[in-house]
Every structure is written in C-alpha cells, then in structure tokens.
Amino acid sequence: MRFAPLVERIAGKGADAWITHYEACAARERGEDVILLSVGDPDLDTPAPVLERAIERLRAGDTHYTPSLGRTPLREAIAADHSRRYGHTVGLDNVIVLSGAQNALFVTSLCVAGPGDEVIALDPMYATYPATVEVSGARLVRSGSTAARGFRVDLDALARSITPRTRALMFASPNNPSGVILNEEELAVIAELARRHDFWIVADQVYAGLAPGGRVPSLAKALPDQVVTICSLSKSLSMPGWRVGWLVGPQPMVAHAEHLAMCMLFGLPGFIQDAAVTALSIAPQAEQNVRDYCARRRDLMHAGLAGIPGLRCHLPDAGMFILADVSATGLTGEQFMRALYAAEKVSVLDGGVFGRETAGVVRICFATEEHAIKDACERIRRFVKAHGAGS
Ligand SMILES: Cc1ncc(COP(=O)(O)O)c(C=O)c1O
After folding, report:
1. How many domains are contained in the chain?
2. What is the pLDDT of residues 316-333, one digit of tens each?
C-alpha cells in the first residue's frame, strides 16, 4: 500500500536520535542499572494543588467535550501570564489552548507556511523542528551559530538566509539544546528583518520560566501582528505528561488555529484545563522551585564533568542541559552517545540531531537526582579514560 509524501518528510534524523534513549528506557523498565540523561523530564512531581484540583474535577464528572479554543478561565489565565511576563497586553481572542508546545508548534507551522515556502530556524534547534516545519510542505532553512561563538545567533548569516520565499523564523529562547537566551540587541535586529521582509516570528518560550526571574526578552509587544508566542506547563511547572500548551498571537492566527484544532484535537480534557488554571495561579513560586532545583544540579554536573580530559562544557543561560564537546575524544556525538551507553549505561543525546554545529557534542540533562549526577559523571570520566581520550 502507498503512503502520502508527508511520511517521508516527518521521518528524519529526529526520530532516529532517540534510539539509545528508548533502549535505556526499556532497560530501566527491566530494572537494569542505567542512568537516563537524554531527556528534559525532571524527577519533580506536579505541584500538589494542581493534582488535587484535577482529581476533584475528575470526581465531579468533568470528562466531557470542551471548546476547541480551550475554556475561558484557562485562556484568561494564559493571557494574564503572557501580559505579566512580556509586558504585552493580550485578551481571550489572542489565545488558544493546545496539547503541549509541540502541538502548538505543529499548528503554527501548518498555518504560516506551505509548499514552496521557506521557514528559517536557528541552528542548533530542538530535534522536532525539522519535521514540524516540513510537515507543511515548506522547506526548512537552517541558520547556524557556532560553538566558537557560544551558539549565539549569527545575525549576518540569518540576514543572508532570507529570500522572497521566507514565511517565518522559528526559534526557542531559551534554546534547546544550547540554553542561549536571545538578548534585546539580537531581537532588535531580528525585528527589523521581520518588518522589512514581512515574515512571522514563531517564538518557542517553553523554557522561559527557567530563565532568571522567569522572563526572557520578547518581540511580542513590538510586533504584535507578526509574533506567535508558544509556551506550555511542561518545563516550568514540571508537568510534561499533562500536555498543556498554548499559542498567543494575533486574532486571525488564533482563528485559523481553532479550525485546525477542530479537525485534529477537539479540545483538551476539562479536568486538565481546570488543573492548569490552578498551575498558572501558583506559577511564580513553582517556577522558582524548578529554577533552584536546576541551578543546583547544573553546578553539580558542571563540577563533576570539569577536568575530564577531552570534554569541554558549554553552560546554559537557562534550561536543563549542558552541551559537552566531545570532539577531542575522536568520536562524533552519535558515536560517543552509543559507545558511552554500551560501556557505562549512561544515556545522553547526540548533539548532531540539533544541527550541523553540534555534531561533535552530546547533550546531557542535569535535571535528575543528585546521586545519579555524581554517578553519571564518574561513569563518563571512566569511559573517556578507557577510550584513551586526552592522552
Ligand atoms: C524547545 C522545545 N520546544 C518544545 C518542546 C515540547 O514541549 P511540550 O512538552 O510542551 O510539548 C520541548 C520539549 O522538550 C522543547 O525542548
């Protein structure tokens, strides 16, 4: 039987990248001694009041269909959160609730570009971006930034990658995997380019709550008709499994997203939406807790990896990951990932899945138990030594 051309566009390297991770998950299920540092899913529980609210609503029978845009109290809470965080006042018409930031990225991608169009994404980029962009039929254009410049955006390269076909620029700030936050100066140049060439800015802010003070610079206020801001409760509220995300954008964008949601999602469960309202009401304190948790573990991981010959670490502005440059070991990121797992049962992620410039790095998540971090650093040290790196 034949499949549609889209199946080719969504089966990229992003899908293969998780092979070691899934192997490690299966081994952990079997009770084997593995350390999983390949995904950003901290061992933090959902805040208790959120859980209580969901259970209460479930018991009250809140298990029916809900509006495709999301319930009004949740959209109001998201609008208030967005206004507070970015100083950009928005209303209900600017908000749609979707199933995680990933779903919001997918919806935005389909609404802003199509066959013959180009979407630029800042490289390195989150591993799902290529398929998320190309599912629409648009072509992904990578705009690179190098390890040598700390993975900060190369604005000249970005300007050169714009063509008459450019429909959107997509980026995450803080970035995954690099943890880089776009600063005001960089965003001012990006805004100027977006104005001049009339393209969308798709700003993935899932890690914004983990940035200092829970805020990152944004163009939402400066370019209200051109910016789509995407966020979720996954990272900053430790609620990835709840699949609550959203987009905030101009009203026509939200209207089109609603049509797509009608034929694709048809509303998030009501008990989850009500629990999400509770989550947003406690967001400032909950985010502070996650930030403290991450800061302590980042320092622990950094100290543990420091001095391992052959490894050079890039510390994030925010987020849950350290990038370790392993090129001095003579291995690519992918080879290092596979060999480390085979030898020491530590699962990290090949940086090559995030872009060309990260082919020689691995991404290591530090949002895990402290004893696991110490143990993992020892195993990595042993692996690098046995591999003869730095000698
Ligand atoms: C940059 C980035 N965007 C989006 C997502 C997806 O987030 P969500 O769980 O809200 O779908 C992730 C998850 O790791 C991410 O790192």
Report:
1. 2
2. 999 999 999 999 999 999
